[in-house]
């Protein structure tokens, strides 16, 4: 998975968390087949990463009971 280097340097959270969130978001985008995916040449992982780093999509860690 490729993330923009500048975004990674500025990122203050866990790399594991953002990677997991990007993977899940990419899966959602692949299922939806939204116009935004088509505009990004079908590259769902890069689109998901961009959305997360720009704050367009948010994620949270769920605690297991």
Features:
65 residues, mainly alpha
Structure explained in plain terms:
By secondary structure, this protein is mainly α. Helices cover 62% and strands 0% of the residues. Helix 2 crosses helix 4. The radius of gyration is 12 Å and the shape is globular. The termini are far apart. The mean pLDDT is 84.
Compact summary:
With 65 residues, this protein is mainly α. The protein has helices at residues 5-10, 15-32, 35-39, 44-54.
User: Which runs of at least 5 residues are low in confidence (pLDDT < 50)?
Assistant: none
Helix fraction? 55-70%
Largest sheet: none
Number of distinct beta strands: 0
| Helix and strand composition category | mainly alpha
H/E element sequence: HHHH
Instruction: Please give the alpha-carbon distance between the first and last residues.
Output: 30 Å
What is the general shape?
globular
Helix count equals 4
- Arithmetic mean pLDDT: 84
Radius of gyration: 12 Å
Estimated share of beta-strand residues: under 5%
Secondary-structure topology with pairs:
Blueprint: H1 5-10, H2 15-32, H3 35-39, H4 44-54
Helix pairs in contact: 2-4
